[in-house]
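Continuing the batch. This is chain 6 of the set; chains 1 through 5 are on the previous pages. Same settings as before, nothing changed between runs. Recording input and output for traceability.
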Amino acid sequence: MAHTSSRTTIVFIVVALISAFVPAFSVEEAEALSLWDTCLLKISPKFALDIIGVVFENLTITDACCHNLVQEGKMCHDTLIKYIAEKPHLVAHETEYLKKNDDLWTHCVSISQTA
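Output for chain 6:
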């Protein structure tokens, strides 16, 4: 029971953190919102936080997280990072974050292929 409770708590924390970074969607962006919702279901909350940490805070990533990222798919990965990088307080460094995003994807694909 405690494991389920802690997992639920982690999910709420991730959703709250991502919501803080993700801009509000307009009606015209319904497709983007649908993709976003689909992507959030594909990746664990811990790995989502790890990925955000790698791109925005220069943290490192585990092989397990890389495997999860590759299973999530490039479109979902790019969507997550792009929406966060477009926040007003981050947009000045958006190019840097998107490059780190691409570097992370390349790294994770190579890790997944060697396993």
